[in-house]
Amino acid sequence: MDAPPILLAEDDADDVELTLEALGRENLANRVAVVRDGVETLQWLRREGPHANREPGDPVVLLLDIKMPRMDGLEVLREIRADERLKQLPVVILTSSNQEQDLVTGYELGVNAYVVKPVQFDAFMDAVREIGVFWALLNRVPGEPAAGASR
């Protein structure tokens, strides 16, 4: 069985490229699906609209930007946590916003982690690789067998 994908919700093409490069350097088995705004993020997760025919299953983690068109990341997070099927999905806010109110609101809405994108290239690459390794390889979710357990 293929590893579940990592879902990247990011509207900035440069940040998408850097994030894909950073995750690619780890050789994770997880492919990365990219969506460009909040509405498309929810469509992907709910298998609606242009994503109605995608493979079934949830991503191992959603890397979610806050400042996106059509629907911002905090509203996406609010929708996810209100959705019975998606509410336990691991969500990491990966954003350039260092505003305290965004941080507070993110945690009030149930984000699993809030990471401010480092400005320096090497620091950004390291941060994204560490996020990818932790959420794709180390984190466990309900219903998943323990590492080393037979399936």
Describe this protein's structure:
The structure is a single chain. The chain has 151 residues and is α/β, with parallel strands linked by helices. It has one domain: Response regulator (Rossmann fold, 3-Layer(aba) Sandwich), CATH 3.40.50.2300. It has a 5-stranded parallel β-sheet with strand order 2-1-3-4-5, with helices on both faces. The C terminus is likely disordered. It is 38% helix and 14% strand. Helix 1 links the parallel strand 1 and strand 2.
Element layout with pairings:
Layout: E1 6-9, H1 13-24, E2 32-35, H2 38-46, E3 61-64, H3 73-82, E4 91-95, H4 100-108, E5 113-116, H5 121-138
Parallel strand pairs: 1-2, 1-3, 3-4, 4-5
Helix pairs in contact: 1-5, 2-3
